Amino acid sequence: MKPCPQCSSPYGYFLSEELYACPECGHEWNPNELIEEQEGKLVVKDANGNLLQDGDSVIVIKNLPVKGASGPVKAGTKVKNIRLTEGDHNIDCKIDGFGAMALKSEFVRKA
């Protein structure tokens, strides 16, 4: 059993070859990919599990409310030339009509 990297539950269990799952949050992960993260390499994945890199284009998959704006960032909005950062909001970008902002990688998919 391995602890879940997402919710820190100690009940992660072996699912298949090189794949573990968490019964509490449903997260699935490959422990070999976590080793890359621990070596100082920033690993950011989109909502589908695809690796993101600086300069990629992504598409917003859900309407995202923006404080101080008249409306949300609509689902389907394409965001070009992203920059990856560490932290909760791990994507820095510019969105037409909204300006510079930070997004969470769980609300985008690779274009």
TrEMBL record:
Protein YjdM C-terminal domain ranges (all copies): 44-111
Any one Pfam family match given in the protein's UniProt record, by short name: YjdM
The keyword Hydrolase appears for this protein: yes
Residue ranges of domain Protein YjdM N-terminal in the record: 3-30
SUPFAM superfamilies: Prokaryotic SH3-related domain, Zinc beta-ribbon
Alphabetic keyword roster: Hydrolase
Coiled coil: none
Single GO molecular function: hydrolase activity
Family: Belongs to the YjdM family.
NCBIfam families: phnA (TIGR00686)
Protein name: Phosphonoacetate hydrolase
Organism: Solitalea koreensis
